[in-house]
Design goal:
The chain is mainly beta. 2% of the residues lie in helices and 42% in strands.
Length: 226
């Protein structure tokens, strides 16, 4: 994930064990990396960097379910769970103003996209309809893009988080999107959106070329006598 100023990245690595460490390094590649967090059990994947640069959202899967944690980049850097339920909460994304978090949860029986206030998680709002995953905020905070997981369609939900409550408007399809891997099988997103919301960078499955026909010749040894 990128820092707000684009000068740093944070990434997970399995150099010690199965993706248990979070590391920070300059985006130029110059210099050494800094270990931010390493734990002994489960996996850790960074999700989002807060606009003020002070917090990182990451997913921890220590036992049976995935949990969203916040890692503060100052003080004792002791992480704490922002969402800890019996369900899987993943893909935490800070809103552009840092007041909200969009995340995916399977609490309804299928994965859906929700938004809740940050840092105090109060009443959440459902964003997706009929299944959703891999969400992204538009840079001005007026839309949330997500993949309709059961239709392979990229959707845009009109939202307004400027007030004390979060408002959800029209939800419309943008275009068909066949992800290269099924949602939920990869820790990150398979697409990203430009700052103006007009272009998408997509890791998509492409149609396989038609296989060449196979010709079977029977009794081919008889042809050798001719």
């Amino acid at each position: 994930i990128w820092s707000p100023d684009g000068r740093q990245i944070v990434f997970s690595s399995r150099r010690k064990a199965a993706y248990q460490g979070l590391y920070q390094k300059a985006s130029t590649g110059v210099g050494t990396e800094e270990l931010l967090l390493r734990e002994d059990k489960g996996t850790r994947y960074p999700n989002s960097w807060s606009p003020d640069g002070q917090s990182i959202l990451y997913v921890a899967a220590p036992q049976t379910n995935a949990v969203l944690f916040v890692l503060l980049l100052s003080g004792d850097r002791k992480p704490y769970p922002i969402l800890k339920t019996q369900f899987n909460e993943v893909s935490g994304q800070f809103s552009p103003d840092g007041r909200w978090i969009a995340y995916a949860s399977n609490e309804s029986g299928k994965r859906e996209v929700y938004v809740a206030p940050f840092p105090g998680l109060g009443e959440k709002r459902l964003i997706s309809t009929a299944g959703g995953d891999m969400h992204r905020w538009q840079r001005d905070g007026t839309d949330i893009f997500y993949l309709a997981s059961y239709a392979n369609t990229l959707m845009a939900a009109s939202v307004n988080g400027k007030g004390s409550s979060f408002e959800v408007g029209a939800v419309k399809p943008l275009f068909d999107f066949r992800p290269a891997w099924p949602p939920g099988l990869v820790p990150g997103n398979l697409y990203d959106v430009s700052a103006d919301g007009q272009r998408f960078l997509i890791n998509t499955a492409i149609e396989q070329a038609a296989s060449r026909p196979i010709t079977v010749v029977s009794n081919w040894t008889a042809l050798l006598k001719k």
